[in-house]
Amino acid sequence: MSGGLLACEGPLIDAFDLALVDLDGVAYAGHQPIEHAADGLSAARSAGVRLVFVTNNASREPEDVAGQLSELDIPATADDVMTAAQAAAALLRTRLDVGATVLVIGGAGLRTAVTAAGLTIVDSADDAPDAVVQGFSPEVGWKDLAEAAFAVQRGAWFVASNRDLSIPQARGIAPGNGSLVAAVVAATGVEPESAGKPAPTMYQMAVDRVGGNRTLVIGDRLDTDLAGARAGGFPGLHVLTGVNSGRDAVLADASMRPHFIGRDLRALTQAHAAPRHREDGSWECGGATARVDGGRLRLDHGDASDPVDAVRAACGAVWAARDDGVRIDEDSVPEFDVR
Q: Which helix (DSSP H) or strand (DSSP E) does residue 231 occupy?
């Protein structure tokens, strides 16, 4: 699979039979719908694409997540949801036997997953837990973080459901589990093992659960969703409805680069052009052209009818230059208006 953007001559939904879909920033923002998400996912299902919603949020039960999706006109059941809580519980079982004790710092979804894995939940560092597992929950406070720190200092294995520093909400970007985990790391000096994205564990668990020969990962975050796609060998679609922008994609490290870029989930029903390297050294996509000159990006939107084509052309130029060792003046890369 190429290290750059890929081309798809027809709609993406004709090229894949399984889509692993992130939630926050892709299907919804907090409890609010994201425009065109329901229609795009409905079109995918109508084309025979199986959907599994894969989220780094470990606070909620799969049934609750499915209920919220259904309320937003994205019908789903608990079997359609794969959470970081389930991945964290699976990671714990790689070293812990049935009945081992775990201090759970997080919400109901994490507690349920740990119990379902045959592990015993304790509520205090004084219970000498074998492990501490930490997942996002809005209710996690200082006392919880202190308890985790006490247990880790005493030798408990430290596991995090994910290391996302932020999480999209309807009102903006809020601190995520990684920000809370950082407090425990600061107190103990111990870095946790992480079960969530960008580790590809959840993606492979989802494929194993439902099957699928041609899998597409869909996300809004480069450092988790798309990095996980690269790590797992899956093509990844970056939708520009959440945390990371088109400019972020242009400047992404090689390990985080998407394979496709779309404004929103309507991208599933569209063909995708890949930037083409021209003889004059520029990169062209859909009428937009880009080149790197003296470390600066030179961009011409030309007659591109799709504003995302300018992002794609810029990705071609900047990624190739960086791969050749050119230092890019990041101030020369604009914010892209893809409305």
A: helix 227-232
